[in-house]
Amino acid sequence: MNQPVAAKAVASVEMWVDGKRRRATASRFGDVTNPAAGAVTRRVPFCNAADVDAAVKAASAAFPAWRDTPLLRRARVMQKFLQLLQANQQELARLVTEEHGKTLADAMGSVQRGIEVVEFACGIPHLLKGEHSENVGSGVDCHTVRQGIGVCAGVTPFNFPVMVPLWMFPVAIACGNTFILKPSEKVPSASMRMAELFKEAGLPDGVFNVVHGDRETVDAILNHPGIHAVSFVGSTPIAKYIYETCARNGKRVQALGGAKNHAVVLPDADLEFTADALIGAAYGSAGERCMAISAVVAVGAAGDPLVALLKKKARAIMVGPGEKEGVEMGPLVTAQHRDKVKAYIDQGVKEGATLVVDGRGLTVPGHESGFFLGTTLFDNVKPGMKIYQDEIFGPVLVVLRSEKLEDAIELVNRNPYANGTAIFTESGGAARRFENEIQVGMVGVNVPIPVPVAFYSFGGWKNSLFGDLHVHGAEGVKFYTRTKVVTTRWPHQDTPAPGLNMPTLG
Fold this sequence. Notes:
The relative contact order is 0.14. The chain has helices spanning 49-67, 71-87, 89-100, 104-121, 124-127, 163-174, 189-200, 215-223, 236-248, 271-283, 303-315, 335-351, 386-389, 405-414, 428-437, 473-479, and strands spanning 11-12, 15-17, 20-22, 29-34, 39-45, 132-137, 140-148, 151-155, 178-182, 208-210, 229-233, 252-256, 261-265, 293-299, 354-357, 376-379, 396-402, 417-418, 420-424, 442-445, 461-462, 465-466, 481-489. It has 16 helices and 23 strands. Helices cover 38% and strands 22% of the residues. The strands form six sheets. Strands 15-16-17-14-13-19-20 form a seven-stranded mixed beta sheet, with helices on both faces. A six-stranded mixed beta sheet has the order 10-9-8-11-12-22, with helices on both faces. A three-stranded mixed beta sheet has the order 1-5-4, covered by helices on one side.
């Protein structure tokens, strides 16, 4: 009689606290899977309040010395970290592919975009310069300084395990703060590797810490009095919850939410170029991007030929494991998420949209247990349909029709999400009108995914952002610092002392 085969033991991911790996005291754990194989590869602890408190204590103890570290020394640590990230870029990308599922080339590109934020943070001596005014009054000068605010935290999503954390902690740390990162429990390993590289770069112990977990961990961060600022990227309901909780607790907060990004295509656009751009923007990373184009508004005569091109190109995409050469789209991150996206396709059919390409039922030979879903394309979608209203976060592209540009602009502006949008046209006048009238935070003209470069800031409007400041760039520096205004007078012995009246500077 055959004996059952024992399940292979998997390693547990640890925390990173005070410059070293540390076992969590938590009793709950989650599984980390390889989405292409459908196999559990690691266990991750769901850190409790005591684990978070240990990280806060380490960060609080490290803050005074790091705050007082000269700017050039901070910049040199950041420059060394930059060099180590560049040298280990492929290793980080492989960790992303292993735990998220996206193709290796896509992972490499996302790591590169994160590295560019570290390049920006290397210029922190210039970025922290204040203002100075001489003789604002008789013998009185005034100047401003930017200072770090203390212990900061970041809660990041599963879809960019390297890039999104790098939007946050390098800028915060360069500004003189200490930091606690809570990456998605689905993709914990890249954050741990970055912590090791930062220590190798010379970062003092306690300045950067990593904890893992689910809502219990996040709530411990949001409610800990020792944490002064929280950054978040994720879904709109959670972004709103984090914003409201932080506000009640007196914390500074930037919470980036969900998206339903539109591309408006005019009849004068180069349709072959446009279709190629939309295919990459819709199906890259299996649609698991907050800047993915998930809705196309075809204006006038652009509709039928555009849909025909999208159909042809969507069907040609090679789907498979992300590390395999030639694969253009990998699996979704979990079986649960794949099933949720499938349910949206079912719903779209029930609602009466035209299913042009159906990704359900796809199997990848040799990877039958993987979380794969093929490309899906809907046409003749109406604004009242769930497949239009909701952020599906999968390889599903919907096409709506519009007669005129003004109708397309009105459609986009009615949507409660306002993260990114794009227009495809050869008309400068139409593009300029779109730029001016569209109520969206990031706009592309013949650029399908208008993610700003690192020295500009990333963020949307409306339900795509809760808070006043975007991430990285100049707004990131503002978020992670407080401005102090200093007014000085150095009186001579014969200068009369101020009296009891309100002082004036005349």
